[in-house]
């Protein structure tokens, strides 16, 4: 039996520059952090003598003998990719799916990590990230970027750089007290709206040249955000203003990134003291993140009393095996 634990992520700046169509031409850059909300993947071998050869438990239960009959695309393609059968896989998570925290990518990362360990391979985070990206973007043909898989693998607050050669991950060296202040200034609210990232990505309605211009502007803000976090002489509040600027840019790419309800919620947050924020993930729903100075946080919480606030703190470990007691499959 193997049990993996993989964190979800908050993408601060750079979303959209992690698409191959952009970073292969212009280079991509993202700033993200993983939080103490997790995806759990349990995997064990079963012989199938007294029942189906494969069993999968998530929001549904599947029992099949033929891998091609698996309904869940990530499980189906991962098992075919790794040539593994005769297993039971259980999935559990702290946060619902399709909410903008990279839940599907965290599941892919945790599953690939579990399968690689089951097959006797080293728990190599670079390899896991690359294979999770391949699983989602190539085998499952899901439209989207690649920062989520990388962030969930490595953990921490990171600068992710992308180009034709692949990716690099650099920890952002934030002084501990400054990091805690950032953490304390961020409020996370669940809008109750679930959506898939790929559905939003299909709705880009402006020209390719305009998208490129917007993404280049967003990419520039990433380094400004990193400088703000690193440089103790700068006001941390500037980070809130950068989130606001990036959100205004991102909304211009597609009418599905935001909507009347989200715009109304965001404006309420700003009017009650937030300096900036964004919808996490591709947009269209999920979680609203706000940067709010402590003096205004009660006011912001009061105006969002009908929403669910999710307290969180940053984590630094990334995906890991928290239990294993089996001999390798091979």
Overall pLDDT metric:
92
Terminal CA distance:
15 Å
Number of strands: 12
Helix run count: 11
Share of residues in helices? 25-40%
Q: In angstroms, what is the radius of gyration?
A: 20 Å
Shape: globular
Helix-strand string: EHEEEHEHHHEEHEHHHHEEHEE
Any overview of this molecule?
The protein has 330 residues and is of the alpha+beta class. It is 38% helix and 25% strand. It contains eleven helices and twelve strands. The protein has helices spanning 20-26, 73-82, 103-118, 125-139, 147-154, 176-184, 197-201, 208-230, 237-251, 260-271, 297-303, and strands spanning 2-13, 28-45, 54-57, 61-64, 87-93, 157-163, 166-171, 186-190, 274-279, 287-292, 308-309, 320-324. The strands form two sheets. Strands 1, 2, 3, 4, 5, 6, 7 and 12 form an eight-stranded mixed β-sheet that branches. Strands 9-10-8-11 form a four-stranded antiparallel β-sheet. Helix 3 (103-118) crosses helix 4 (125-139) and helix 8 (208-230) packs antiparallel against helix 9 (237-251).
Give me the secondary-structure topology.
Layout: E1 2-13, H1 20-26, E2 28-45, E3 54-57, E4 61-64, H2 73-82, E5 87-93, H3 103-118, H4 125-139, H5 147-154, E6 157-163, E7 166-171, H6 176-184, E8 186-190, H7 197-201, H8 208-230, H9 237-251, H10 260-271, E9 274-279, E10 287-292, H11 297-303, E11 308-309, E12 320-324
Parallel strand pairs: 3-5
Antiparallel strand pairs: 1-2, 1-12, 2-5, 2-6, 3-4, 6-7, 8-10, 8-11, 9-10
Helix pairs in contact: 2-3, 3-4, 3-5, 4-5, 8-9
């Amino acid at each position: 039996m193997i049990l993996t634990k993989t964190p979800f992520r908050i993408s601060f700046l750079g979303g959209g520059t992690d698409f191959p169509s952009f970073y292969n031409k212009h280079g991509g850059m993202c700033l993200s952090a993983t939080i103490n909300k997790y995806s759990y993947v349990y995997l064990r071998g079963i012989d199938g003598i007294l029942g189906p050869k494969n069993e999968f438990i998530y929001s549904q239960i599947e029992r099949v003998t033929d891998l091609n009959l698996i309904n869940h695309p990530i499980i189906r393609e991962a098992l075919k990719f790794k040539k593994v059968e005769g297993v039971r896989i259980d999935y559990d998570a702290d946060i619902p799916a399709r909410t903008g925290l990279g839940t599907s990518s965290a599941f892919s990362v945790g599953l690939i990590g579990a399968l690689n360990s089951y097959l006797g391979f080293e728990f190599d985070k670079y390899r896991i990230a690359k294979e999770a990206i391949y699983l989602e973007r190539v085998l499952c043909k899901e439209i989207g970027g690649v920062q989520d898989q990388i962030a969930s693998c490595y953990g921490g607050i990171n600068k992710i750089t992308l180009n034709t050669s692949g990716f690099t991950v650099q920890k952002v060296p934030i002084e501990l007290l400054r990091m805690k202040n950032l953490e304390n200034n961020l409020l996370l609210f669940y809008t109750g709206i679930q959506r898939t990232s790929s559905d939003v990505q299909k709705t880009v309605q402006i020209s390719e040249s305009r998208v490129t211009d917007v993404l280049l502007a967003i990419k520039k803000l990433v380094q400004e955000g990193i400088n703000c976090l690193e440089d103790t002489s700068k006001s941390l509040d500037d980070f809130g203003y950068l989130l606001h600027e990036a959100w205004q840019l991102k909304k211009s790419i597609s009418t599905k990134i935001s909507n009347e309800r989200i715009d109304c919620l965001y404006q309420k947050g700003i009017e009650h003291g937030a300096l900036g924020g964004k919808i996490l993930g591709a947009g269209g729903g999920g979680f609203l993140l706000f940067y709010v100075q402590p003096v205004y946080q009660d006011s912001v919480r009061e105006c969002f009393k009908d929403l669910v606030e999710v307290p969180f703190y940053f984590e630094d470990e990334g995906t890991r095996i928290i239990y294993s007691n089996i001999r390798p499959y091979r």
